[in-house]
């Protein structure tokens, strides 16, 4: 923390001068999550907060699609991302053309796109979802067949939760969560009896099946807070456990984790530079933003 302290102090001061707020995803490193953020949460919580922000500037500490979502919901605010290279393998896996291909393949079926997509893809979709509301959103669609893009594993996990629907999907995946295997979990259980295994739904279905619980990053936090298991292994990005370990000293967080190279592009140094120079501003074409807002707002309305 000593090395972080000067950056934290400078960021807090500049935040005041710029009338800025920092929205940070649960996968940010602890010095960002605990040290400088105003709001922390999962993708849905951050989107809802972005719509209600009163400050002039939002610094999005997360990945690019999250910053775009904030800009879509708060078009009059300046939305900054400290590193434009903070992408996402899911967002990169599909374009608006891919959505049209799915529509041609399944005529009349609604397109539910994960928020981990570009603004163009959201604009081409009927409604968005996050990992915390995906099953609810799919269940609420009028059609029997529902297209889910771009995460094949989230879609397959949702298909099990909503068996009354014929869920079809795009073949995208998250490079962090696809690396876990069901055998990893079985081995881990054998070597560490009594450990609660908790998986994000971007993991393949056989991994989720081996886990004791599956949920979005805020769902994971809630589960661990409510259950307080003696030992827990979070089958997700590494910072998740680091961020919540302090609040839950009675839980021992164990096991390997996987790092998201995109999330880790955001650092205290880059946040300071971003506030100092007011870069990089996120720009979304107005027509695209208007259409994308409809899809995101439908999701928010259905989730409340
Ligand atoms: P959450 O909505 O669960 O925070 O997930 C976002 C994400 O990118 C997970 O990889
Ligand atoms: Fe994208 Fe996966 Fe990183 Fe989340 S963890 S931002 S889904 S690559």
Can you walk me through this structure?
The chain has 304 residues and is an alpha/beta fold. The protein has 3 domains: 5-87 and 264-284, Rossmann fold (3-Layer(aba) Sandwich), CATH 3.40.50.10800; 90-175, NadA-like (Rossmann fold); 182-259, Rossmann fold (3-Layer(aba) Sandwich). Helix content is 45%, strand content 15%. It is built from 15 helices and 12 strands. It has helices at 5-18, 30-33, 43-52, 64-73, 89-92, 96-105, 119-123, 134-139, 152-161, 182-191, 205-210, 217-227, 238-245, 268-277, 286-303; strands at residues 20-25, 39-41, 57-61, 78-80, 111-114, 127-129, 145-149, 166-169, 195-199, 213-214, 231-235, 252-253. The strands form 3 sheets. It has a 4-stranded parallel β-sheet, sandwiched between helices. The radius of gyration is 19 Å and the shape is globular. It binds 1,3-dihydroxyacetonephosphate and iron/sulfur cluster.
């Amino acid at each position: 923390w000593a090395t972080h302290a000067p950056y934290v102090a400078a960021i807090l001061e500049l935040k005041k001068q710029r009338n800025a707020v920092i929205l940070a995803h649960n996968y940010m490193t602890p010095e960002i999550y605990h040290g400088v953020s105003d709001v922390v949460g999962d993708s849905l919580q951050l989107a809802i907060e972005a719509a209600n922000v009163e400050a002039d500037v939002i610094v999005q500490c997360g990945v690019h699609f999250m910053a775009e979502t904030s800009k879509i919901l708060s078009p009059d605010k300046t939305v900054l991302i400290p590193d434009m290279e903070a992408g996402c393998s899911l967002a990169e896996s599909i374009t608006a053309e891919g959505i049209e291909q799915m529509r041609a393949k399944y005529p009349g079926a609604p397109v539910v796109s994960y928020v981990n997509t570009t603004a163009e893809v959201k604009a081409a979709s009927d409604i968005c979802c996050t990992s915390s509301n995906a099953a609810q959103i799919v269940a609420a669609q009028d059609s029997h067949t529902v297209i889910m893009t771009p995460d094949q594993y989230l879609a397959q996990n949702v298909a099990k939760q909503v068996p009354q629907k014929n869920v079809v999907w795009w073949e995208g995946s998250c490079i962090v969560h696809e690396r876990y295997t069901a055998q990893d979990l079985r081995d881990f259980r054998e070597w560490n009896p009594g450990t609660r295994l908790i998986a994000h739904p971007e993991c393949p279905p056989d991994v989720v099946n081996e886990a004791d619980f599956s949920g979005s990053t805020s769902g994971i936090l809630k589960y661990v807070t409510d259950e307080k298991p003696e030992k827990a292994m979070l089958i997700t990005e590494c910072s998740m456990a680091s961020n919540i370990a302090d609040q839950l000293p009675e839980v021992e967080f164990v096991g390997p984790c996987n790092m998201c190279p995109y999330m880790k592009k955001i650092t205290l140094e880059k946040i300071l530079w971003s506030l100092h120079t007011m870069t990089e501003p996120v720009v979304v074409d107005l027509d695209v933003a208007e259409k994308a807002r409809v899809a995101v707002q439908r999701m928010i309305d259905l989730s409340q």
